[in-house]
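Chain A, query sequence.
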Amino acid sequence: MNAVVVFSERLGALGEPEQRIAAETGAELVVEPLWTEEQLIDAGGRADVLVLGAVEPVTARVVEALTRTTLLVRRGIGVDNVDVAAATGRGLPVAYVPDASVEEVSDHAVALLLAAERRLFAAVDAVRDGDTPAAGAAVGTARRFADLVVGVVGFGRIGQAAARKLAPLVRRVVAADPYGSPSAAEELGVELVELDELFAASHAVTLHAPLTDATRGLVSAERLALLQPGAVVVNTARGELVDEAALVEAVRAGRVAVAALDVTAREPLAAGDPLLKEPGIVLTGHTAAKGRRSGRQLRDEVVRAVLDGLAGRAPRHLADPSVLAHPACALAGDAGGTGDA
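Chain A, predicted structure.
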């Protein structure tokens, strides 16, 4: 019986990269809706490999039901929609792609931050409304980049890339990350500080932390109150890092001049969501990772992970490499391998 690889319909149509899987292994490729636990459980009854996006709810209940599946592949960098601990406990490896879109996401964050600081979003809206004086007034409040202190929350691959791009433009870059590399910070001229110190010092904050129990809601009303007046907040990481109700209030109060969000806690947003109503909030629809080079690289690395899994090999990047030591794990590899985020 040929292997079956089920792709979430959220990932779009299959193309030439994915067809390599069928050509090289004879596997059947299927695209299905995987929006609910029930859909995932149903698909898992037929799938040797499941390929997922960022929102499919792979809960402990789902993991227990995936009795046929030998590999989960997350097409992207985050795995917070997957109960990795449950998967590891069952011997089910979770592969992901941590490096395909580092440049694109950091580019997007820097572009949003600089455009927000120049008040370009308000200026564009004013000109479209026929109010050029209002555009001038908006840009007239902009600070010089050379005067800015920018805080980078999360100092992994993407946070470091953002800091590298910002450092030549601004007065000072500070970063907060309990696991941040002091050597990388020194090389980039970045000062590692505590999170509250970062918020108190920063004119603009860009978020690049993973979503964990410790980071959920870290951008709270209390931390927003620490920011320099007229601050900019950029989020290209995970929506749940931000207390969105508190952010809306901070924008309305003028404490935050612009919040530029590529991600939100609920995607897509419901009509009438407060985030959609505030002119000081800019939304880019979870597009930061997209780009000519990153899109192809992402798909190629997913294909490589699936081919490895179908051949009984461990993919290069696993969310928890210790799963390979589990007696129920169907893949062979180095249990001390890569699990970095």
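The CA atoms of residues 78 and 210 lie 7 Å apart. The chain has a mean pLDDT of 95.
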